[in-house]
From TrEMBL:
It comes from the Bacteria. This is ABC transporter ATP-binding protein. One of its GO terms (biological process) is translation. SUPFAM superfamilies: P-loop containing nucleoside triphosphate hydrolases. One of its GO terms (molecular function) is tRNA binding. The lineage of its organism: Bacteria, Bacillati, Bacillota, Clostridia, Eubacteriales. Residues 540-563 are annotated as: Disordered. The keyword Protein biosynthesis applies. InterPro entries: AAA+_ATPase, ABC_tran_C, ABC_tran_Xtn, ABC_transporter-like_ATP-bd, ABC_transporter-like_CS, ABCF_ATPase, P-loop_NTPase, Val-tRNA_synth_C_sf. Residues 4-255, 319-537 form the ABC transporter domain. PANTHER family: ABC TRANSPORTER ATP-BINDING SUBUNIT, ABC TRANSPORTER DOMAIN-CONTAINING PROTEIN. Keywords: ATP-binding, Coiled coil, Cytoplasm, Hydrolase, Nucleotide-binding, Protein biosynthesis, Repeat, RNA-binding, rRNA-binding, Translation regulation, tRNA-binding. PROSITE patterns: ABC_TRANSPORTER_1 (PS00211), ABC_TRANSPORTER_2 (PS50893).
Length: 646
């Protein structure tokens, strides 16, 4: 059944057109993800669908008596209310009845002898019975408990930002509705809650429309994607993976159409240049067609973020943490933690909210000092710190002025000079937007601007605290590609599993009470190791795989040796011996380097041992490079000897 039909919808803010004559429908069972570059109108479209934002033109037809529940990015909180009151704050009769019941229950607990309050509670209890609302109340408390909130009467003002966001999400989930609208529901949520939310939304039967940057979440929950690009809306049936495939097909088709238009335009231009006169109707029509073709240009690939920045050389010594601890009041966040950050380290930090992940990043950045322990920072280290919070700026500061505070020009890795204005254009801030007040930007545009400022400082150590919050999927993809080729160290707190899989090769897990566990591998590999520890047959399958690989390598080694023995070579005795043994020598060096990498990962807290291992690895890599050069020489010589035999 159709819930909403939208025809020729348009919306502008001043001279900025966000959406232009778009049409779409939302049906029962739809689970729709909306994606697009920050500032293209995604949140505005959600507000229009929710009925809380006006639009300029178009028609919206909704099902009779349709109930919509909307969770904004930044929900409003009554700081003086308690948790359960905030959950049932809705204006519907159902929410009001449950809220009145919970308030009455609290009143009776405070004044158990008051007969009037007791009668009021009994009346509300009967009303809860008649409306069958106990399931909603119990579901809300179960969700809150899952979210780590067990004191239902705690004042909202005493809660953290993450806890408040979870309360708002709980409120939206339990409120019965035909259409659930969520704007960035995974922001400030830890990975366990995100996994729970995936499962919950998959089981939920009602329609869903949401904005999220979490690509795994999109892939596992949605069955339809709306992409907003250059004021237009494109609909893709399927999840995020299917969207990526279909988008490539659409862009290929557009390129093909544009190529045909360009060819036709060139022919028409030649005709015009030959001096055609618009005397006849036929000639005038052809000139009109030329003018129309000139105006119909398709803009391709001009809506993508480009990251080209400079890099400061990084020495061997980066950051060394030795037995650091940090507590706030009576809560221990970090206890006796040691680690040596290596050049090109890629560390992802995960764990439940409130356990100290951001605290560690702030200690690394120098914003916080540990209670005990030492931190040593290498002389060549230049830290770029991308914090969760948008740092306050003057209300009258313009975009271009904010970036020029860092540099008027930067030299990129390829040696070219780029102005602040050009860098802004590569980050999708047009020349008009560059003179806009920062206060006028969307939340996502501010995050993108802040990211540009950090990267323009030419850091060689990047500290990223929830970098994926409020960034669009396109910018995230470009950022991931940049980080993969970044020559320095990267340490990132993130709840985005896709992001961690792309950029991390080590995972630090905050387990509570100051304990930080270290794992080698990306996020998915860390999860596999956890399942292995819990026991799920993974270890046996891994052993079988290793056995197969060992047998395969053994056979390949035997074949290689037999082949080398079959050859009659006209080397000197020393060269012949070296040629026959060099493959095994190289293989042995590669295995030793791999083993050293494992030992380095296991000894990041033992400073003396780690330095010995790093020195040994450096020597092994130099020797491997020499042997590879020698291998090339010997093989080229062998080929020449064979040719001479023919």
């Amino acid at each position: 059944m159709n819930l909403i039909s939208v025809e020729n919808l348009s919306k502008s803010y001043g001279e900025k057109s966000l959406i232009n004559n778009i049409s779409f429908s939302i049906n029962e069972g739809d689970k729709i993800g909306i994606i697009g570059i920050n500032g293209t109108g995604k949140s505005t479209l959600l507000k229009i669908i929710a009925g809380i934002e006006s639009y300029d033109n178009g028609t919206i037809i909704t099902k009779n008596n349709m109930v919509v529940e909307y969770l904004p990015q930044n929900p409003y909180f009554d700081e003086n209310s308690n948790v359960i009151q905030q959950v049932f704050k809705g204006t519907s009769p159902i929410m009001k009845t449950i809220r009145d019941y919970e308030n009455s229950l609290e009143e009776v607990e405070l004044n158990p002898e008051d007969e009037a309050l007791q009668k009021k509670l009994m009346d509300l209890t009967s009303k809860m019975d008649n409306l069958n609302l106990w399931q909603i109340e119990s579901e809300a408390k179960a969700i809150l408990t899952t979210f780590g909130i067990t004191n239902f009467y705690e004042k909202v003002k005493n809660l953290s930002g993450g806890q408040k966001k979870r309360i708002a999400l709980c409120s939206s989930l339990v409120n019965p509705c035909d259409l659930l609208i969520l704007d960035e529901p995974t922001n400030h949520m830890d990975n366990e809650i995100i996994s729970w939310l995936e499962e919950y939304l998959n089981k939920r039967k009602g329609a869903l429309v949401m904005i999220t940057h979490d690509r795994y979440f999109l892939d596992r929950v949605t069955n339809k994607i709306f992409e907003i690009s250059k004021g237009q809306l494109y609909t893709y049936l399927g999840n995020y993976s299917i969207f990526l495939e279909k988008k490539v097909e659409r862009e290929d088709l557009e390129r093909s159409s544009e190529a045909k238009r360009q060819n036709l335009l060139r022919r028409e231009l030649q005709w015009i240049k030959r001096g055609a006169k618009a005397r006849s109707t036929k000639q005038k029509a052809r000139i009109d067609r030329f003018n129309k073709l000139s105006e119909e240009s398709i803009d391709l690939d001009d809506n993508k973020v480009e990251i080209f920045t400079s890099f400061t050389r990084l020495g061997k010594k980066v950051i060394e943490l030795k037995d650091i601890s940090k507590s706030f009041v009576d809560k221990t966040l970090i206890k006796d933690f040691s680690y040596i950050v290596l050049p090109k380290d890629r560390i992802g930090i995960v764990g439940s909210n409130g356990l100290g992940k951001s605290t560690l990043i702030k200690i690394l950045s120098g914003d916080l000092i540990p209670d005990k322990g030492t931190i040593e920072i290498g002389e060549t280290v230049k830290v770029g710190y991308f914090s969760q919070e948008w740092k306050p700026v003057q209300d009258d500061l313009r975009v271009i002025e904010y970036i020029r505070e860092t540099a008027e020009f930067i030299t990129t890795s390829d040696g070219s000079k780029i102005s602040a204005s050009q860098m802004l254009e590569r980050f999708l801030f047009t020349s008009e937007m560059q003179w806009s007040l920062i206060s006028k930007l969307s939340g996502g545009e501010k995050r993108r601007l802040y990211l540009l400022k950090v990267l323009m400082e030419a850091p060689n150590v990047l500290l990223l605290d929830e970098p994926t919050n409020d960034l669009d999927t396109e910018t995230l993809t470009i950022l991931e590609d940049y980080l993969e080729n970044f020559n320095g160290s990267v340490i990132s707190v993130s709840h985005d599993r896709y992001f961690l899989d792309k950029i991390a090769d080590k995972i630090f897990v905050f387990e509570g009470n100051g304990i930080i566990q270290k794992y080698t591998g990306n996020y998915s590999e860390y999860r596999e190791k956890i399942r292995e520890i819990r026991g799920d047959g993974y270890e046996e399958s891994k052993k079988d795989l290793k056995k197969d690989n060992d047998n395969k390598n053994s056979n390949e080694g035997k074949n290689a040796k037999s082949k080398s023995k079959d050859k009659t070579l006209k080397f000197s005795y020393k060269e012949k011996l070296e040629y026959e043994q060099i493959d095994e020598v190289i293989e042995g060096l590669e295995e030793r380097i791999a083993k050293l990498d494992e030992e380095i990962a296991e000894n990041t807290s033992d400073f003396q041992k780690l330095q010995e291992l790093l020195n040994e690895k450096e020597d092994a890599e130099k020797l491997l490079e020499e042997k590879m050069e020698r291998w090339t020489y010997l093989n080229e010589l062998a080929e020449k000897i064979e040719e001479m035999k023919k």
